[in-house]
Amino acid sequence: MIEEKRIVLRNADLIDPEKIEDYLQAGGYQGLEKARSMSRPDLIAEIKKSNLRGRGGAAFNCGLKWSFVPADAPVSYVVCNFDEGEPGTYKDRIIVQKDPQSLLEGMAICGHAVNSKKGYIYCRGEYPYVVDLLNRAIDQARNKGVLGDFDIEVRMGGGAYVCGEETALIESIEGHRGEPRFKPPFPGVAGLWAQPTVVNNVETFANLPSIVINGAEWFAAIGAPNYPGTKVLTLTGDVANRVSIEVPTTATLREVIYDFGGGIKDGKRFKAVQVGGTSGGFIPESLLDTPIDFDSMRGIGATLGTGAVFVMDETRDIVDITTRIAKFFEHESCGKCNPCREGTFRAHEIMKKVNQGRASVQDIENLTILSQVMEKACLCGLGQAAPAPILTTLKHFYPEYQARLQLN
Amino acid sequence: MSTIQDIVLAFRDKPGGIIEAYHAVQKEYNYLPEETITVAASTFGVSEAQAYGVATFYSYLSVEKRGKYIIRMCESAPCHVAGAEALIKAFEAALGIVAGETTADGKFTLELTECVGQCQATPVITINNVPYVNMSPEQVPAVLALCQ
Ligand SMILES: Cc1cc2nc3c(=O)[nH]c(=O)nc-3n(C[C@H](O)[C@H](O)[C@H](O)COP(=O)(O)O)c2cc1C
Ligand code: FES
């Protein structure tokens, strides 16, 4: 049986998150100290070599992203994406509630690498109690002087899922409607207030102190070679134990659901799992031996995404759940681009028809074409990923659709 | 209670501070009274249309008057399969209003929301941002009784 491996959650339940002294006692801020003794290019090269890939969903090489910030930029920003809007996900909340200083240290390490004096944490509006905790943690870090000349400010989101998209998030910090920007330019070149900006996820930052201390080779040797390290997962739905865990990325879905989740609740049988949040693909039993790393999940037409693991038992109605998900995307589409605004509306409309037993085979064909168009034509990842639950359930659970169709 | 003017002006020097100002007003008033938009527009140097556009983009902010207790009911997929629909119906029946409405005495507002990040114990509601987890229709009267 596979064991938990704690890097991000190394201090969880071992220290008092309200006390920076506990964090310092546990070796906190030694990573930052070591980072500051390194030259910026060396630090970036080290992070790049560790092959730490973004934990917010897109899995971009973290050091490579940092290297896009021009070395001579007079002003640059470090932004932490703590929007955590993907339904079924609460891992960033757990990380911050258990050990807020790890996030602050990670951001300060990034600040040194890209010569930034100012960081922002964009925390979702649903977590006002975590905003308060973060502000207390920042005050303590300031008072201890551990952050040096790097300062961090918390901004609160307003309940818009799209604001997790990095350029929409930047718009929101600037005080605008959270609509995604056209890329390029990418934030590394022109982000917050048109200055070079690094946007990383909470979990990405929280990995950094240990990587700097233990070195790139140490990290690269943990888990899957292409997506090394661990992943914090949140188990929801019909598993016996709805827990959050941190496992090496070589863990398989079956190990996650059965060894850590304790299998299906109430002695029922497994039907499906949706990984990565509500924009993730649905996965049938036959693919449960797939490792969770980003590339393996891609290989089966799914995604690791945020690491949310939503398990459904044999009694669950796949068409009904997919209809609910389609409503989510219609509601959360920001309306900036037509393929997403219209597409999510029509997709929900057709899914409702199927769910109510009023749809025909022609409707399913239209839904498939619409989904393929949206994947290609939508401006941002919201619209591009919205069809994934539909397409993967059509692929793996078509009989459930078929049973609902009108036969003429 | 501080005046809206005072609350908004406190954020004057914060770049992009309009959303922070809205949060602060809403914390005291439970919604954004119309004056907030005019004051924010002049404070942050944007048109009233833009200030209104920002306020109405975010589902967490409300330009409609709301009750003293704002009950938000999560209907995202993990809560949905855990019985969110029956829970929503139970709240609607207990309060005699439907989601989106406020009771006549101004005490309760019911809202639907997407995931609030407490999916380890579904279904979930929040009352004035405090999460209540593992909810069931049977618990509705007790939870409402907590709101005094
Ligand atoms: C609709 C949408 C929502 C997103 N939500 C989040 C989120 O809540 N948290 C997050 O870290 N990344 C989110 N992302 C990904 C970000 O755009 C970005 O890739 C990420 O913050 C980069 O950090 P990383 O490289 O450390 O993963 C979202 C993307 C899209 C398209
Ligand atoms: S799905 Fe309801 S709280 Fe996350």
UniProtKB/TrEMBL annotation, chain A:
UniProt-listed SUPFAM superfamilies: Nqo1 FMN-binding domain-like, Nqo1 middle domain-like, Nqo1C-terminal domain-like
Enzyme class: oxidoreductase
GO molecular function terms noted in the UniProt entry: 4 iron, 4 sulfur cluster binding; FMN binding; hydrogen dehydrogenase (NADP+) activity; metal ion binding; NADH dehydrogenase (ubiquinone) activity
Residue ranges constituting the NADH-ubiquinone oxidoreductase 51kDa subunit iron-sulphur binding domain according to the UniProt record: 319-364
EC number assigned by the record: 1.12.1.3
Alphabetized UniProt keyword annotations: 4Fe-4S, Iron, Iron-sulfur, Metal-binding, Oxidoreductase
InterPro entries, per database record: NADH-UbQ_OxRdtase_51kDa_CS, Nuo51_FMN-bd, Nuo51_FMN-bd_sf, Nuop51_4Fe4S-bd, Nuop51_4Fe4S-bd_sf
NCBIfam families membership: PRK13596.1
Family of this protein: Belongs to the complex I 51 kDa subunit family.
Protein name: NADP-reducing hydrogenase subunit HndC
Organism from which the protein derives: Sporotomaculum syntrophicum
Gene: hndC_3
Automatic annotation (TrEMBL), chain B:
Cited Gene3D superfamilies: Glutaredoxin (3.40.30.10), NADH-quinone oxidoreductase subunit E (1.10.10.1590)
Pfam family, one: 2Fe-2S_thioredx
Highest rank taxon of the organism: Bacteria
Record's signal peptide: none
Protein name per UniProt: NADH-quinone oxidoreductase subunit E
Top EC group: oxidoreductase
Cofactor binding note of this UniProt entry: Binds 1 [2Fe-2S] cluster.
Family according to the record: Belongs to the complex I 24 kDa subunit family.
GO MF term list: 2 iron, 2 sulfur cluster binding; metal ion binding; oxidoreductase activity
Keywords from the named record: 2Fe-2S, Iron, Iron-sulfur, Metal-binding, Oxidoreductase
Cofactor(s) annotated in UniProt: [2Fe-2S] cluster
Native source species: Sporotomaculum syntrophicum
Documented EC number(s): 1.6.5.11
